[in-house]
Amino acid sequence: MIFLTLIMTNLRRHRIRSLISVAGIAFSVAAMLTVVTILQGAIGMFSGILSSDSEIIVFERNVSDLFFSNVPAAALDEIAGWPMVLHADPVLFGIVSSADHPIITCFGVTAADARIRNATWVQGDRLTFAQHADDVALGERAAEFLGAKLDDHVPIGHGVFHVIGILKTSNGFEDGGVFMPLSSAQGFFHKEATSSVITIKLRNKEDAGSFKTMVKEKFPNLVGLEDAEFTRSYSQFKILKATAWAVGGCGLVLGGLGVANTMIMSVFTRIREIAILRVNGFSHLQVAAMIFGESAVVSLMGAVFGLLTGTCLLLILKQVPALHGYVDVSLHPIVMMIVIVLALATGIAGALYPAAYAMRIRAVEALRFE
Amino acid sequence: MNFSSPQVSTRGRIVLQAEDVWKSYDDGSIAVLKGVHFEAIGGHTVALCGPSGCGKSTLLHLFGGLDSPDRGRVCVNGAEINRHSNLLRLLRHEVGFVFQLHNLIPDLTLEENCLIPTVAAGIDRRAAQARLRQLADRTGLSHRLGHRIQKLSGGERQRTALCRALMNKPKILLADEPTGSLDEGTSAQVFNLLLDLVATEGVTLVMATHDRSLAERCDRLLEMHDGRVHESAYAQ
User: Fold this and answer.
1) Each residue of B98-109: pLDDT tens digit?
2) Could you tell me if residue A305 is inside a domain?
3) Do B120 and A370 touch (CB under 8 A)?
4) Mean per-residue pLDDT, A172-201
């Protein structure tokens, strides 16, 4: 109890300095939480597009990005005929542009595609999809920023397309995208007779292993991955996740430096006090524990405030139309745990030098100088 | 851990001993102690007098294990203090320190300050509280336990320092000018209390002081000069 009192007294003594350190950790935690959550939301949405009513994704082996993947139509035809396959949907990804929006994701899909079937058609009829080469269906947000309505003709890229429907989906990517008939997209992107991926729905999920083996044997340049496997191994996702944690980590390092600065100042200003504790029987380890305790309290308070601030920030960002679908405000316990552990580890790391310095204080020298 | 282990009486035995102790500073250029021989009997009070800089405080620091001699040996209860011995045990259970400046932590209360040695020694909180109440009663501080140090008078602070030094029932009390920062009246009060406490607790007192009138009230009065300790007189 007295030990805790000593810790809290030391923090209270320099309230402003302690609060600045807490704020440093809190902002770092909030930044990490926000960046990680948004990027995980983006990854989740992209995975959601691929796993829509399917269990396996087939794409070109060793591509850095699915936009560069080419799966030949011949492979689609053969795979669709395998007995364990219920249905195989080709999807061609592309980037199109309009006057004010240089990047719009385009999905080249067939009329039978799960994305078309499962979406809510706010305007138009899904049965009319892919009847003409210049037909497109727009995601609700894409229609909004393109200012397009049903039956309008909108300029996209070097062509003008007829809007035959407006879809609403829970997926932000899809909501902000353009759906073209597969054949039109193949022509538009000069990728005739290919798709970026094939999403596979199996008759029986147990056949996933044998399906992947068959893909490997029959099409050595293609790879089939189950959805979870794909999310884990896709290099773009790995890069995104690593970036998110690196950005957050940099924030935490800065926060840790703030803690280190506070703790160093704290130790320097009470050398005599530490000497008194030593004279009264405090061991080196007890002195170090006190310093680490102070930094742990700062870090924990920072982590808690950071989680609260981050959540509030995410709630605000959720209201931004451009981020629709990207922001998942529900805090995952694992993310919270990681953030708290990282904040604590940062605080402890920041207290390493101050604690070592405090342990080296010689009581006799500190007390000799009044 | 608590205070319940039986205290072995040290009365009449040599509890503190220095044999040919040398100590210098600044790489040997300032020799402070030059072959000090010293013995203190359990339960006795010993005063060390001498001019400033003669090495009184240095000797007390060596007795308390805060510093180590360049040469010679210091023994507490027959065990030599050196870097291999358990200095923590010495500081937690064998010796207590009182300094000229009270050396209390100003932002803590009187009670919290006094409990610090018991926290260091891992003594049971209830036993520590009981011991504190007992000492606070003896020193007239019972009504001030919850007060911060800044609110206490000089005399009260020094009495608090005395309580803190005696919390873990040390066998030796090392007092470095314990009344040096107090006015004459308060100084006499604190010193009377000090003598009373060490007598009833059976503690050996080694006190460095400039005040000869206080020093003469101790069992032994030793003079320090030329880096050595010289017997001066025995008090009644």
Assistant:
1) 988 888 988 889
2) yes
3) no
4) 90
Contact at CB, B97 and A12, closer than 8 angstroms = no
Number of residues that this document lists for chain B = 236
Q: In this structure, how many other beta carbons lie within 10 angstroms of the beta carbon of residue B163?
A: 25
Q: Residue A167 burial (CB < 10 Å; 0-12/13-18/19+)?
A: buried
On whether the pTM is more than 0.90, the answer is no
Task: Verify that A42 and A66 share a domain, yes or no.
Answer: no
Task: Residue B22: give the domain boundaries.
Answer: 14-103+170-234
CA B161 to chain centre: 10
* pLDDT at A145 (0 to 100): 85
pLDDT of B4 reads 43
Q: pLDDT tens for residues B150-176?
A: 889 888 999 999 999 999 999 999 999
Residue A115's closest CA among A165, A75, A79, A149?
Answer: A165
- Is B218 a member of any domain? yes
In a domain, residue A137? The reply is: yes
Same domain flag for A361 and A252 = yes
Residues A212 and A309 in one domain: no
Residue A128 lies in a domain: yes
Q: Predicted confidence band at A85 (pLDDT cuts at 50, 70, 90)? A: very high
pLDDT category at A224 given cuts 50, 70, 90 is: very high
Asked if the structure places residue B137 within a domain, the reply is: no
Residue ending a domain, choose from A220, A251, A272: A220
Which is higher by pLDDT, A53 or A216? A216
Asked if residue A107 lies in contact with residue A85, where contact means CB atoms within 8 angstroms, the answer is: no
Domain shared by A259 and A161, yes or no: no
Domain that holds residue A131: 62-220
Q: CB of B102 within 8 A of CB of B152? A: no
Given a contact cutoff of 8 angstroms between Cβ atoms, the answer to whether A135 and A162 are in contact is yes
Q: Could you tell me if residue B222 is inside a domain?
A: yes
Angstroms from A320 CA to nearest CA on chain B? 49
Q: How far is B236 from chain A (nearest CA, A)?
A: 33
Q: Which of B91, B108, B112 lies at the smallest CB-CB distance from A279?
A: B91
Residue A226 lies in a domain: no
Q: How far is A363 from chain B (nearest CA, A)?
A: 7
> What ipTM was predicted for this assembly?
0.88
Same-domain check for residues A170 and A304:
no
**B29 — pLDDT class (breaks 50, 70, 90):** confident
How many structural domains is chain B composed of?
1
Taking one residue from A and the other from B, the number of pairs with CB-CB distance under 8 angstroms is 58
CA dist., res. A185 & res. A129, Å (int): 13
